[in-house]
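subagent[fold] <- orchestrator: predict structure for attached chain, return tokens only, no commentary.
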Amino acid sequence: MLHLSFHPISSRFSFLPSKSPLTASASPFPLFKPISLPPPHPLLLSSPCRRRLPPLPAADPSVLQSVAEASAVLAAIIVVHESGHFLAASLLRIRISKFAIGFGPPLARFSSSSGIEFSLRSFPLGGYVAFPDADDPEFPDSGIAPDDPDLLRNRPLPHRFLVVSAGVVANIVFAYLVLFSQCISFGAAARQPLPGVLIPDVRPLSAASVAGILPGDVILDAPSVYGLVDLIKSSPGKSIPLQISRKTLPNPFIVNVVPDTDSDGTGRIGVQLSPNFRVTRVRPANIFEAIRFSGVEFFALSATILEGLKETFLNFSQTAGKVAGPVAIIATGAEVARSSSDGLFQFAAVINLNLAVINLLPLPALDGGTLALLLVEAARGGQKLPRELEQRIMSSGVLVVLMLGLILIVRDTLNLDFVKEML
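subagent[fold] -> orchestrator:
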């Protein structure tokens, strides 16, 4: 049986370069890898030095709701991706045997009148669309002839390219539609940079809280978020004077903060950090203006993600720790959802684009790996690789990706603040 789109939800979330505006935190408050900026326009960007994920205290109903919202967004994105494969194959009248969300034992499943099995499975690492084979051991009495023209492997290369790439195309189109919906619902964002670094939140009983820093304060003498994080990390136990601006006070004042020492020996003060700028919303005058505004945002996000992907591979030893699994992504989405409903649109767009980029990588078990095999076949003049070789390549990739996904789930779960507090 052929499987398309074994796409793990594990990626360096949003692949954003250091030159981009970002949010970060100087621990021990979670060093949010992506996190929302103050409403109304959160940005989902990578932190240079994440240690923990956003806290998810189970007792808070609003947190449970935000987790459910983020999970629903992630599930919808997976469904969109798999539906791209499914729709392309259906339009080309190619046989389909399974449509699955997740992997492992099925939690729920049913079969359609056409014999396609739809299932929701135990491990939320992605999903797949499966195509039958004449010699499929799962269906020994299927009655499918080896030369059946409706089998995917018997279709010409252009048809197979369309089916394999359709999931990525679906995510790209959906990302644009999400940004278009955001523009129609909330307007397009116009950002005006302001001096300093904003503190959206302060962790109770942290070094920053003890020093008197409050949410909404602005650190005026910080060169940048990255620069401030580096200063705090390199100064455990040392007093750092910070010039603070507070809306309720007429003049700036100095606060001396002594960073606590984190488990890795670096400093932490327990705040979220964000670029400081004013965001205004511009309502599009008509549908054509909304299309244009959405296009500008779409191409800006896409360029930033691609630039971040390049930096990830060029500096893999420094960026490997920023790989995020489904737990980390949902935790981040929950934090965004709590900040503003507007943030979920941006979160969905970024995850869609990330999923598209990740799936295009020429790695076994990903769509890009299958496309690479098709390119090899095209280069060989249409002569296919031996089926055993293809199966070995893809099976090894599936095993590696599943192991990586499980490792990420365990690691990201243990990095959740409320889990750490229980341990």
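orchestrator: received. Logging for downstream: DSSP finds eleven helices and 13 strands in the chain. The longest helix spans residues 61-91.
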